[in-house]
Amino acid sequence: MTRDLTVGQFIPGxxxxxxxxxxxxxxxxFLFIIQxxxxxxxxxxIFLLLLLWIYIVCAQVPAxxxxxxxxxxxxVIIVTALLNIFYVSGHVLxxxxxxxxxxxxxxTGFTLLVRLITLIAGCSLITYTTSLNALASxxxxxxxxxxRLHFPVSELSMTLSITLRFLPTLAEELDRIIEAxxxxxAQFATGTILNRIRAFFPVILPLFMSAxxxxxxxxxxxxxxCYHGGEGxxxxxxxxxxxxxxxxxxxxxAAFAMTLIFNSIRQPF
Amino acid sequence: MALIELKNxxxxxxxxxxxxxxxxxxxxxxxxxxESVGLIGHTGSGKSTLIRHFNGLLRPNSGQVVYQGNDxxxxxxxxxxxxxxxxxxxxYPEAQIFEDTVGKDIAYGPRNMGIGQEEMNARIRESLxxxxxxxxxxxxxxFRLSGGEMRRxxxxxxxxxxxxxxxxxxxxxxxxxxxxxxxxDALRHYRRKSGAAVVxxxxxxxxxxxxxxxxxxxxxxxxxxxxPVASIFxxxxxLVSIGLDIPQSTKVLLGLKAKGYxxxxxxxxxxxxxxxxxxxxxxxxxx
Lengths: 269, 287
Known about the structure:
Oligomer: heterodimer
Strand order of the largest sheet of chain B: 6-7-8-3-9-10
Largest sheet of chain A: 2 strands, antiparallel
Strand content of chain A: under 5%
Distance between the termini of chain B: 53 Å
Distance between the termini of chain A: 46 Å
CATH architecture of the largest domain in chain B: 3-Layer(aba) Sandwich
Number of strands of chain B: 10
Number of strands of chain A: 2
CATH topology of the largest domain in chain B: Rossmann fold
Largest sheet of chain B: 6 strands, mixed
Strand content of chain B: 15-25%
Number of domains of chain B: 3
Number of helices of chain A: 11
Number of helices of chain B: 11
Structural class of chain B: alpha/beta
Largest interface: A-B, 21 and 26 residues
Helix content of chain B: 40-55%
CATH superfamily of the largest domain in chain B: P-loop containing nucleotide triphosphate hydrolases
Radius of gyration of chain B: 21 Å
Number of domains of chain A: 2
């Protein structure tokens, strides 16, 4: 069951998007999110979809994969869109009892649908094209100015990368323990709720035990290598901004400006 | 009729995705009651996938698992009752211990079977004794035991279900020689007493030579060899070619033979090799 968690997992590759600096990608993702929320008119919506298509091509990630990332939240998107259809005032197209659909409502609902899907699909691209280690070190450098305020940036980034690193390991461990207890006759999917919760103790407890054991072993290993926090540490592969990164920033800023322009052009909606 | 039989099993992980892996191809093997079978193969040859088919933890994509003449997957609802009869001990089984006393942890399997208190107590004591631990362990905290003792407690937890087929995945991994001896003694004891069939997965050819009668060799998801220990270890070259080893004592005899000494090479345990060498030396002394 846990093996199916492939959504959002890094896909190694050499696309344009893969080779961007993680810092650039983090900032541009942030910019893209703002852009999605500022998209208001029909013209800029079309432009947004075009952009998403360009980004997917640049990332060389199969479109199927990108939309698989959207799938889990489709129910949420649909409910939000439906609520908007019924609650926005405007020219009434259809009504029944207290329900009425307006042209403005339809458009708002549709806009929301497209915007949310684009948002999730766009954000999934960064996780598909950036390894967790790169993300963590990018985040560390972006947050570096906070060190002045005595904020433990490198410790935080170390903790983050250890967490991310051990998620799949623990998922595997969980699978193994479930199988071992099943072999001793455990059943998880039947009985009253209380019984079902109780059935998980034989799984959760060993999982915690092994997580703690791993944590202690890791602590020893880290101390043996004289780790003492981020002070004075250098990197094996220091991050470096290239021409590619500046080009990407300029492209994204231009796209951002285009959205604002498309928003202000007079259109039927 | 075999006690449990796998017929033409195929199994594929994550079919239809980029992570697709064909783990088993057309694997067939049978185990008779009271038999002890060794399952060997290189890392990634499909041993662990195969043993998960014995008790229905994995469902084959095609092929049948037949236990006592019944197809396991004909009635998927009854698989749980089959699992009580086919005990599976995973690698590092001590990781499954969760109760605060040894007694309670061993009771987990039998309690799932719905066994009454009186028989439960008898079973707990019996399986504890079987793995060579005395009753003073019953109330002890399993997490304060040594690694070897924890391992034996975990195995006792499976033995307490009195399985008719006992499958063990690398049960001696990481144990010291003493713990390893105690473990194999316990397994022999259980097998003799209950008449159960035992399937042993191991990387150690010495353990295989010591403990089993028959060996099944897996290579890249298919059965490469299947036969009595003697005939398998006689094919040293083939074993080496699929990345496996032969027992040290057999190696010594093969080496002597290659140097032109007329020793017999059908010896797989230290005792057999010792006898063969003594016989050879005696004959060589004679003029």
